[in-house]
Structures are given as structure tokens and as C-alpha cells.
Design a protein that fits this description.
Belongs to the binding-protein-dependent transport system permease family. It is found in: Cell membrane. The chain has helices spanning 2-27, 33-38, 45-55, 61-73, 87-122, 127-141, 144-154, 156-159, 173-207, 210-217, 222-259, 265-274, 278-306, 308-312. By secondary structure, the chain is mainly alpha-helical. The chain folds into 2 domains: 2-73, no CATH class; 95-312, MetI-like fold. α5 packs antiparallel against α6 (127-141) and α5 (87-122) packs across α9 (173-207). The longest helix is centred in the last third of the chain and has 38 residues, at 222-259. 30% of the residues are buried. The model has no long low-confidence stretch (mean pLDDT 82).
Length: 313
């Protein structure tokens, strides 16, 4: 319980620092802050004064922060200049395809990497090891957007897959899948390469541990040996890395959504940066930062559960 409370308190402190950094993001942007917040360019002095009064920009900075934080806690992140709708509503609509792509990519990457890395460790130096190492090398060498472009050129039409856009699950599983295969593949390859290498190293090190040799001398073999004595301790660094990479994957979605013209959070951020819609950039920074903090807390808790040394301490 003490460990859990300490992680929660650390997360709260990190959230406060995140809100301060996000608040200052717009205030430190070059140009007029009223333009940054509203997207209204070339307004008269009277209009700027009215906007400043509406947003509380005529108040001292600490008072502005407290007022802004109150709005954030109420779910009010401002209005996007791109469409005129509330930023919370715009992000809510765009997050669905983004999170689907990111989560599916991470799950597929972990499953494939654990299989490839384990086979490579058990067949060290053989053909299976070399094949898995080759996949890992290709995955870690090619950027996500390059993989996406290669898939568009060489795979999409031949396989009958959708090359752009997004269809929700309500449109049917087939249509949803056709639109998800390419972006998920492009996003997964690099993570598969990273986790395959990590799994191979972790399993190889575990196989050399004294407790594994002791279990073998007692006649433990097969699946019981693999799962209970080899894979379970080997999964600790893999799950930790996968959890931390989830945030990086969400960042990678920004590029992938531009490549495949997917109307997700990444494309919203890209359009916001291009149109200088700082309300969108500010809100997206806050949301992604909150996700990063939540994932870190979750990874700490999972790590403590899997590692008996952490539980004992």
C-alpha cells in the first residue's frame, strides 16, 4: 500500500508540473498570446483587449494559471480555431482511431517479439536465430514513415487493402480491418525489432541462471520449464519496455496518420501546428503527457507484481 501511495503522489506531482509546462507553452510562443489561443490573426486592439479579458490574460500569471487549471479540471480545454468546436470534443473524436492503432500495434508487437525472441534464444546460432535477428535488424533500421510508404507502394493494391482513411468498427469488421492493417504494420515493425532483441537477450541470460540449471537437474522440462522458470522472469524487462514504448508509439501515430490520411489525433496535431492552432497543441500535449504518466505508474505496479524481489522489499 505504501508503494502504491508513493507512486500516486509522484504521479500527482508530475501532473502538476505537466500542467505548468503546458500552460507556459502557449504563453512563451512567439507573437501575441491572444492570437496563439484563439487563432484570430490581425484583430484590432479592442478585439484583443476583449479576448484578453475573456481569457483572463490581463491578470497576473499565477492567477491565470489557477483559472486555466480550474477550466482543465472541468474538461474545458478551449476552442479549436480549425473547426470552432471545443477542443475536448475534437480530441475525443480523433483519439479513437489513434488509440486503436497504438494499442493493437503494441499488443501484436509484444506477442510476436516474445515468440521470435524466445525461439532465437532457444535456437541460438541456428537458422531460426538468424531469421529472428534479421527481422529485428530490419525493424529497428527503418523509420515508421518509410515502412508506411513502402507498404503503400508494394503491398496495398496487391493485397486489396485500403491505402488511406479510417472506418469505425460500426462499418463492419472487414472494412475496419482493411483500413487498420497497413498503419498497424508500419507502426509495429520497429517495436517488434526492439522487443525481439530484448527478449532474445533476456531469455538467453535467464537460461544461464543457477535456478534454471537446478530445475533441469530435478527433471523439470517442456512447457513448465519454459513458462514458469524461463519466460516469467524474462518478461519483466520486456513488459517494462513495452509499456514505456506505448507513449512513443502514440507519438509515432502522428506521422503514420499523416502518411495514411487517417483522421486521428496525429493528423489533428499536424493540422494544428500547420495552422498555428495553439489551443489544439496545448490540449494534445496535456493529454499525451497524462497518458505517459499513467503508463509509467502502471508499469511500476506491474514490475512490482512480476518481480518477487520488489514485493519482498
Amino acid at each position: 500500500m505504501r508503494f502504491f501511495l508513493s507512486r500516486v503522489l509522484s504521479a500527482v506531482a508530475a501532473l502538476l508540473l505537466l500542467t505548468m509546462a503546458t500552460f507556459l507553452l502557449v504563453r512563451l510562443m512567439p507573437g501575441d498570446v491572444t492570437t496563439s489561443l484563439t487563432g484570430v490573426d490581425g484583430a484590432s486592439q479592442e478585439t484583443k483587449a476583449a479576448i484578453a479579458a475573456e481569457y483572463g490574460l490581463d491578470k497576473p500569471l499565477p492567477e491565470q494559471y489557477v483559472r486555466w487549471l480550474g477550466h482543465v479540471l472541468e474538461g474545458d480545454l478551449g476552442t479549436t480555431a480549425l473547426t470552432g468546436q471545443p477542443v475536448t470534443e475534437a480530441l475525443g473524436e480523433k483519439m479513437v482511431p489513434s488509440l486503436q492503432i497504438a494499442l493493437i500495434a503494441v499488443v501484436i508487437s509484444v506477442l510476436l517479439a516474445v515468440v521470435l525472441g524466445t525461439v532465437a534464444a532457444l535456437r541460438r546460432g541456428r537458422a531460426a536465430d538468424k531469421a529472428a535477428s534479421g527481422v529485428a535488424l530490419v525493424g529497428t533500421s527503418l523509420p515508421d514513415f518509410v515502412v508506411g510508404l513502402l507498404l503503400l507502394v508494394f503491398v496495398a493494391r496487391q493485397a486489396g487493402l485500403a491505402t488511406f482513411g479510417y472506418e469505425p468498427l460500426s462499418a463492419g469488421l472487414w472494412e475496419w480491418g482493411r483500413h487498420m492493417v497497413l498503419p498497424v504494420t508500419a507502426l509495429s515493425l520497429g517495436l517488434i525489432g526492439l522487443l525481439t532483441r530484448l527478449t532474445r537477450t533476456s531469455v538467453s541470460e535467464t537460461l544461464q541462471q543457477e535456478f534454471v540449471r537446478t530445475a533441469r537437474s530435478k527433471g523439470v522440462q517442456g512447457r513448465r520449464m519454459l513458462w514458469r522458470h524461463v519466460l516469467r522472469p524474462s518478461l519483466i524487462p520486456i513488459i517494462t519496455t513495452a509499456g514505456l514504448q506505448l507513449v512513443a508509439v502514440v507519438g509515432g501515430v502522428v506521422v503514420i496518420e499523416v502518411v495514411f490520411s487517417i483522421p486521428g489525433m496525429g493528423k489533428l496535431i499536424f493540422d494544428g501546428m500547420r495552422q498555428r492552432d495553439y489551443a489544439v497543441i496545448q490540449a494534445a500535449t496535456l493529454v499525451i503527457g497524462c497518458m505517459a504518466i499513467a503508463v509509467n505508474v502502471f508499469v511500476d505496479l506491474v514490475y512490482r507484481y512480476l518481480d518477487p524481489r520488489m514485493r519482498d522489499s
